[in-house]
Automatic annotation (TrEMBL):
This is ABC transporter ATP-binding protein. The chain crosses the membrane at residues 50-69, 89-107, 157-177, 183-204, 264-285, 297-317, 773-792. PANTHER family: ATP-DEPENDENT PERMEASE MDL1, MITOCHONDRIAL, ATP-DEPENDENT TRANSLOCASE ABCB1-LIKE. Residues 358-597, 855-1091 form the ABC transporter domain. The lineage of its organism: Eukaryota, Metazoa, Ecdysozoa, Nematoda, Chromadorea. InterPro entries: AAA+_ATPase (IPR003593), ABC1_TM_dom (IPR011527), ABC1_TM_sf (IPR036640), ABC_transporter-like_ATP-bd (IPR003439), ABC_transporter-like_CS (IPR017871), P-loop_NTPase (IPR027417), Type_1_exporter (IPR039421). One of its GO terms (cellular component) is mitochondrial inner membrane. It is a multi-pass membrane protein. Residues 89-325, 720-824 form the ABC transmembrane type-1 domain. SMART domains: AAA. GO terms for molecular function: ABC-type oligopeptide transporter activity; ATP binding; ATP hydrolysis activity. It is found in: Membrane. Belongs to the ABC transporter superfamily. ABCB family. Multidrug resistance exporter (TC 3.A.1.201) subfamily. CDD domains: ABC_6TM_Pgp_ABCB1_D1_like, ABC_MTABC3_MDL1_MDL2.
Length: 1097
């Protein structure tokens, strides 16, 4: 960062900066200066530094030996015969092997350490720093910048040293043999340094912009692929591809500009080399005819040596550029690491156990991205062992206060105390290890259920870790469905594993939160994804588990708050009401009105309860059992030398990226269920592999494919890094950073083993290719001398043949510098072409019919491809006439959301039919079908960009007036228009600039702006507060006039006016009818109704 009083740089420093290729970054505000070359070794140990220095000494020796060939050539020209030096050749061969082995080994170890430090640093960043970036951008920074550092520290660093030594030794050699010719060629040195420095100065700004633009592209790929279902239901594939293409076009321009400048300066340097070379011959050749002049051999030695040195000086340009890129990349990486260095360092050490006495006193807070205060004098308290609740409309500050309590953010003003001490006196680890939290949107990681609950933690109370694992699973009502799975707690989740329903994921998250028996339990809509019966069971268990600990609950479903000791009603960042559930109902205030909107208006005596709370908890307790087995599952954009080749290669890469993104976004859900094409794998491949492929597109042939395995294996670590970056907040709140750091370190070991073997192969190939210069010289001059001696060849012919053979060996030597690039390009091409070869998206089927809204599901059976023997839907039947409002209720995992996926054609059923207006939905074009069906999902997904852009995603022909109307219908217009930039407000990565309820309302507006014939609502109002929910429900009811709506809901107050309610359990409809009919039936639905009654009794 610059100081406020920026002063001009002295002219001497500017000259030094140019000569050192530092560029003009120091002249730019708010840009990152490249770090010094020495700082590239910041994380190198003493052993690393020693080995690297030895490697550089070997590099210098090979450079110093290089002019010997020119000397040999001159002596041949003088005497036609010269005994070749075999010992010298063998010595150089051994030195080159040692050089490459040491440098590449040290480089790999430093880069691996740097990766670990970066991942650890991200896990220590505060929430405001995370808000300013995105998982895709962090992943891009890690992969691309680390590759640039590897390139700059490896062969290219050695080549800079070698080229410099070759020039110096060539200069000395030429002066020894012919000082006149050498004097003419002397200006080549300073010219080369100045030209190389100017090249770095003029290209530095474009390189920085290239890196920033590349990060933006990586972020877009991450959010579109990771949320591909949301993109698909909005028909937003082409919108995403167009945004991506715009970024790629910027990259083409920037890459071409860098290469144009680079090519100009290189061309100018080589022009100087050849100009002075010609001038030296004009001076040296006539001198051989003067008495006392130098002989012809000395002219050839001097000319050849300086020309050789000048040529390698010219090659410094690309290598210095690579080194500059490495320094800039390191500066970006170090910026994150240095920022995190000021934060608390995560530790696995045991921390003091707090009592859980919490108090907020006149707390004010605003987000860095906004000017308006979110909390305006918030005051509330929770005594140790007390159960308190925070209620209020979406965006009032409930979740923000939790962010302050967990030290994700720091308060602006006021005081927060824990156990009587200011929260600032505690480090993050102490606070977070005393808190168990279940967030609004459950987050599970790739791995087994056991690993997701344990996260590397050991149980320190009575009994074993395995007993505690099963105990918390039973408390969270997760044991029942886990035991039904084939592998139980060892069932793999995520890529290549099974998919769980929202309620099942939430129950595992609850088990994870209470595993360590924390004194403070935070439930941020913890039961929002549970069905009524599971919610009742879990709530009873949590009530019992809350004894002896402080519990803070945030909930919009007020039926979950009836047993709270104190309920605080928050509005506009301050508490406006407080009391028990009964007290607040009797006051007739905001809470009472919120309760009225959720009350089902049913006399509890009409519904017979199947189980009492005590009986329920006894069943829960009876499911607890034994023992543990926790295991950890574990570029080179070598610049094109000329503008047109760079533009062509960048354009090809851009076309490949665009084509892959388009084809991937049009795949069905089954494609992403496969581990080799999981969302995270695709994101990693599309962001990382094209950079490596670039090396194979500028005219160089692919030499071999031997290290493809290294590239593929390294993807494991890259995928884990992306997962860590995507769920950083969850990891921080659970204080399990060390567990994920260790997992990442473990994932690198497999790569390191392969790298050690590849380094040996690379060193051998490098030494052979460089040693070929001396080997070919030995063979050509050795055998040539024999032929000259016997009169079979003239000396002139030998000299010409020898020079021709030498030039061939030089060509092989130069090709070797591209060898690592080409290896990676080959492996990258093999990976990328698996996506490129995907079939074009086809729009087969009816694309004309305008639906009226009737639907019929007849005898539908379905099993997910990843679990073909487990049927989620079993002979399922539902129907709706145009304009009907249909509700699907029942236990989590019963098949309700699966049915929505079938409607949207993410999957196709194995048996039965789904018909819209009596047309089989599989006979309709997918895009056309989705234009007439709108879905609002259980977890709202927004993309980086403005609010208006998010609402209009994939919606051709709509205007800003349509957006405003849809926002009014979804109760979003008021809060949007209160924002400084209104509908142009950027929502941030994953919509983090907005609250959960605000995101949900925008998602509803996105559905309504399409004027769909069929509206699918999968828990569409689950994140809304009572008043907002009432208004949105009215808006949805009004919007549903003339169209069919299908709602999935656990909050039954939202569906009591439905035309028909279907109770679905284990893939079948077990009850159906209107609300009144089902209540009178006194069956399963009636039991759910009783559980959600908001009566104060």
């Amino acid at each position: 960062m610059k100081a406020a009083g920026h002063k001009s740089t002295p002219i001497t420093e500017k000259i030094i900066a140019i000569l050192l290729c530092k560029g003009d970054l120091s002249d730019e505000e708010n840009e990152i200066d490249p770090c010094s070359t020495w700082e590239l070794f910041r994380f190198a140990s003493t052993r690393h530094k020693l080995c690297f220095v030895i490697g550089l000494l070997c590099t210098a020796l090979t450079g110093l030996f290089m002019p010997l060939n020119q000397v040999l050539g001159g002596l041949v020209a003088r005497a036609y015969l010269q005994e070749p030096n075999v010992t010298s050749m063998i010595t150089k061969f051994v030195i080159i092997i040692l050089q490459q082995y040491l440098i590449l080994t040290v480089t790999n170890e430093i880069v691996d350490r740097l990766r670990r430090e970066y991942v650890a640093a991200v896990l220590r960043l505060d929430a405001e720093s995370l808000d300013a970036t995105s998982p895709g951008k962090l992943s891009s920074e890690l992969n691309e910048n680390i590759d640039k550092i590897r390139d700059g520290l490896g062969e290219k660093f050695a080549l800079v040293i070698r080229s410099t030594c070759i020039f110096l030794s060539s200069l000395i050699t030429s002066f020894v043999y012919n000082w006149k010719v050498s004097l003419v060629l002397l200006p080549l040195g300073p010219i080369g340094v100045i030209v190389t420095g100017l090249s770095g100065r003029f290209t530095a700004r474009s390189i920085k912009r290239q890196m920033d633009t590349s990060s933006r592209g990586a972020s877009l790929v991450e959010e579109s692929v990771m949320n591909v279902k949301t993109v698909a239901v909005c028909n937003g594939q082409e919108d995403m591809v167009k945004k991506y293409r715009s970024i790629l076009d910027d990259l083409i321009i920037l890459g071409s500009r860098v290469s144009l400048l680079n090519g100009f300066f290189e061309g100018f340097l080589f022009f100087g080399i050849y100009f002075f070379g010609l001038f030296s011959l004009l001076v040296g050749v006539p001198d051989t005819y003067n008495e006392g002049g130098f002989d012809g051999g000395s002219v050839i030695i001097a000319f050849g040596s300086i020309l050789l040195g000048g040529f390698f000086l010219g090659l410094l340009g690309p290598h210095m550029m690579t080194l500059l890129k490495a320094r800039m990349a390191a500066a970006v990486i170090y910026q994150t690491i240095d920022k995190a260095a000021t934060m608390d360092v995560p530790s696995e050490a045991k921390v003091q156990r707090l009592r859980g006495d919490i108090e907020f006193r006149d707390v004010h807070f605003k987000y860095a991205s906004r000017d308006a205060m979110v909390l305006k004098g918030l005051t509330f308290s929770a005594r140790a062992g007390q159960a308190v609740a925070l209620a209020g409309h979406s965006g009032c500050g409930k979740s923000t206060s939790i962010g302050l309590l967990t030290k994700l953010y720091e308060k602006y003003d006021g005081k927060i105390t824990v156990d009587g001490r200011d929260i600032s006196e505690y480090d993050r680890q102490t606070i977070r290890k005393n808190i168990g939290m279940v967030a609004q949107e459950p987050c599970l990681f790739n791995g087994t259920i056991r690993e997701n609950i344990l996260l590397g933690r050991e149980w320190e109370g009575e009994g074993t870790t395995e007993q505690r694992l099963r105990e918390v699973a039973a408390i969270a009502q997760a044991s029942h469905f886990i035991e039904k799975l084939e592998h139980g707690f060892d069932t793999v989740l995520g890529a290549g594993g099974i998919a769980l329903s929202g309620g099942q994921k939430q129950r595992i998250a609850i088990a994870r939160a209470i595993f360590t028996d924390p004194p403070i339990l935070i439930l941020d809509e913890a039961t929002s994804a549970l069905d009524v019966q599971s919610e009742k069971l879990v709530q009873a268990a949590l009530n019992d588990a809350s004894i002896g600990r402080t519990t803070i609950s945030i909930a919009h479903r007020l039926s979950t708050l009836k047993e709270m000791d104190v309920i605080y009603v928050i509005d506009k960042g301050a508490v406006i009401e407080q009391g028990t559930h009964g007290e607040l109902l009797s006051k007739g205030g905001i809470y009472s009105r919120m309760a009225e909107t959720q009350n089902l208006g049913v006399d509890e005596n009409r519904v017979k309860s199947g189980d009492s709370s005590s009986e329920i908890f006894q069943r829960v307790q009876s499911r607890r059992s034994s023992r543990m087995s926790n295991k950890i599952h574990p570029r080179h954009d070598k610049e094109s030398q000329y503008f047109f080749s760079s533009k062509a290669s960048e354009s090809v890469i851009a076309t490949i990226k665009e084509r892959i993104l388009r084809r991937v976004l049009h795949r069905n859900a089954e494609f992403f269920d496969l581990p080799e094409t999981s969302n995270a794998t695709i994101v990693n491949d599309l962001n990382q592999q094209p950079t490596a492929l670039l090396a194979g597109l500028d005219g160089r042939a692919v030499l071999c494919v031997w290290c493809s395995t290294t590239i593929i294996t390294s993807n494991i670590a890259a995928l884990l890094a992306l997962e860590i970056f995507s769920q950083t907040r969850t990891i921080q709140i659970m204080a399990v950073e060390k567990y994920f750091e260790n997992n990442y370190t473990y994932s690198q070991k497999e790569v390191a083993d392969i790298q050690r073997k590849s380094v040996i192969v690379q060193a051998l190939i490098w030494s052979v290719s460089n040693g070929s210069i001396y080997l070919f010289g030995l063979v050509s001059f050795g055998f040539g001398a024999f032929f000259v001696y016997h009169g079979l060849l003239t000396g002139q012919a030998l000299y010409l043949v020898g020079m021709t053979v030498e030039f061939s060996s030089w060509a092989l030597s130069f090709a070797n510098t591209a060898f690592p690039d080409l290896v990676r390009a080959n492996a990258a091409a093999r990976i990328l072409y698996t996506y490129v070869d995907l079939p074009e998206p086809e729009e087969d089927g009816d694309a004309q019919t305008q639906l009226k809204g009737s639907l019929e599901v007849r005898n539908v059976s379905f099993a997910y491809p990843s679990r073909p023997h487990h049927r989620v839907a079993k002979q399922l039947c539902i129907s709706a006439a145009p304009g009907d409002t249909i509700a699907l209720v029942g236990p989590s995992g019963g098949g309700k959301s699966t049915l929505i996926s079938l409607f949207e054609r993410f999957y196709d059923q194995q048996e039965g039919t789904i018909k819209f207006d009596n047309i089989d939905h599989r006979g309709m074009a997918v895009r056309h079908l989705r234009t007439q069906i709108a879905l609002v999902g259980q977890e709202p997904v927004l993309f980086e960009g403005s609010i208006a852009e998010n609402i209009l995603l994939g919606c051709d022909g709509s205007t800003i007036d349509d957006v405003r109307l849809a926002c009014k219908m979804s109760n979003a217009a008021n809060f949007i228009e209160d924002l400084p930039e209104g509908y142009d407000t950027d929502v941030g990565a994953k919509g983090r600039a907005l609250s959960g309820g605000q995101k949900q309302r925008i998602a509803i507006a996105r559905a309504l702006v399409r004027r769909p014939k069929i509206l699918l609502l999968d828990e569409a109002t689950s994140a809304l507060g009572g008043e907002s929910e009432r208004i949105v429900q009215e808006a949805i009811a009004k919007a549903s006039e003339g169209r069919t709506s299908i709602s999935i809901a656990h909050r039954l107050s939202t569906v009591k006016d439905a035309t028909c309610i279907y109770f679905i359990e284990e893939g079948r409809v077990v009850e159906k009818g209107t609300h009144e009919e089902l209540v009178q039936l006194r069956g399963k639905y009636a039991t759910y109704v009783k559980a959600q009654s908001l009566s104060s009794s």
